[in-house]
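Case 301 in the screening queue. Each case pairs one protein sequence with one candidate compound; here the compound is manganese (II) ion. For every case the pipeline is the same: read the inputs, emit a complex structure as tokens, and attach any notable structural observations.

Predict complex for case 301.
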Amino acid sequence: MTRLRAVVLGAAAGGGLPQWNCGCANCNAARRGEIPPQTQSSLAVTANGEDWLVLNASPDIGRQLAASPALHPTALRDVPLKSVMLTNGDIDHVAGLLTLREKQPFTLYMTGGIAEVLAANPIFGALDPAVVTRAPVALGESIEPVSGLSATLFAAPGKVPLYLEGDGAGLVTDMEGEQTVGVELSAAGARLLYVPGCARVTPTLAARLQGADAVFFDGTLWEDDEMIRLGLGVKTGARMGHMSMNGPSGSIAALAGMDIGRRIFVHMNNSNPVLVPGSAERRAAEAAGWTIGQDGMEITL
Ligand code: MLT
Ligand code: MN
Ligand code: ZN
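Case 301 output:
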């Protein structure tokens, strides 16, 4: 039977919760077991319950797969993971490809721009081209990455990966092109959108989100200057290519009033107060109709 099913493999942004070098209140609470730890950014999707597409290969993919029975090997060297799709070239979305290197066939979908980024990094040659097919996908092109699932990549405002910023001069943090994309998935009449990185909601993006059964959206920060205020860094969310949840220019406001079945935040940075169940910020997001994604969360449409 064809049914669109999605499992959050990792709900956190780069670094995860806790992040190895972070002593912030959230990371310490996660270490003490007071709030649920979250691994790094990834979503698994199937349309037939057997063949799975993994969206983004996080550095935590090994334990994410181990924690997901539906993705366990089905034979000596056969796995339900049939394809991987990338939404950008950030480390939290590509480093896990190195874990998938054990001569296991799958197809790797990404834009031509991200394919060039991978091709320029010889370490990804560890994915033997004889068994792992790299398939560049044009924006707007409709493909079938696993049986019964239709997928389209579309530009989401964002920037190049951090490691390609150079000295940052002239950096555009909300460009629309092949460096940061969202994914539209559909099966059996259901439509799901996955946008883990987004600098702003343009009218074009809003039109695409309208009427979706589920939207998984960039939940990196609650407030744009959150990391600065907490003493964790010098960058705003906007500088990192991520819009925040709260405020008049935030994602909660941007999607308010739209016809969207389920709205779920993913890619939360460990500084984000919504990671604390019961926090005022989490209750505000929930009151606005959002669910805070977490590892292992599953939806069926
Ligand atoms: C991001 O989402 O902004 C990046 O994952 C940051 C990073 O590469 O650490
Ligand atoms: Mn990220
Ligand atoms: Zn932290």
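Case 301 observations:
- Residues 201 and 254 are 7 Å apart (CA to CA).
- Residues 5-295 form a domain with the Metallo-beta-lactamase; Chain A fold (CATH 3.60.15.10).
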